[in-house]
Specification:
The protein is 78% helix and 0% strand. The chain is built from eight helices and no strands. It has 171 residues and is mainly alpha-helical. The radius of gyration is 21 Å and the shape is flat.
């Protein structure tokens, strides 16, 4: 029970601040870059989980200071840096990201922008990219399992090519 443990209550407060900060970052970026919504959300989910795990290894004051630094880093002049970092976390190339930005930037400039946020978060985007890829693979597998289960429920077996043509004639 958090009410009886001040340290646990303080950690819970820090985690709530972290979640709110990352949600604000995500909402702000998605508002301007709707075509990258899934990439941004997946990267933020993995980043949030990684930071939460790291907070447990820090003192209370250090954890609070780190979350404050993350929150403070998302200012108008850092928004593009966060976008670059999160898109790199989702596996996009520096060239692709540089071309997405308005105005476009070189691969080297995109790398520098990414490095600024990596320094704040404490984890390189390549490490998070591996975790994001696993998250996306798990989501795809879940979707495939659900589709197979729907076929089994509807047909009692996996579909065959004739099932598709039968479905077309029924409509």
């Amino acid at each position: 029970d958090y009410a009886d443990d001040p340290a646990a209550r303080h950690l819970a407060d820090i985690l709530v601040r972290l979640k709110a900060s990352l949600e604000f970052i995500g909402e702000s970026l998605i508002r301007e870059h709707r075509d990258h919504t899934e990439s941004i959300q997946n990267a933020l989910t993995i980043l949030r989980d990684w930071i939460a795990a790291q907070l447990l290894q820090r003192s209370s004051d250090a954890a609070l200071q780190w979350v404050h630094q993350i929150t403070k880093s998302f200012s108008t002049n850092q928004e593009r840096n966060w976008l670059v970092y999160l898109l790199r976390c989702s596996g996009q190339t520096l060239k692709t990201i540089g071309d997405i930005l308005t105005p476009p930037v070189s691969r080297e400039r995109a790398r520098q922008m990414e490095a600024k946020i990596a320094k704040i978060t404490g984890i390189q985007s390549a490490e998070l990219a591996e975790r994001v890829e696993k998250l996306e693979e798990a989501a795809l597998l879940k979707h495939e399992r659900e589709a197979i289960q729907a076929w089994l429920d509807r047909l009692g077996r996996l579909p065959i090519p004739e099932d598709l043509s039968d479905a077309d004639t029924d409509q």
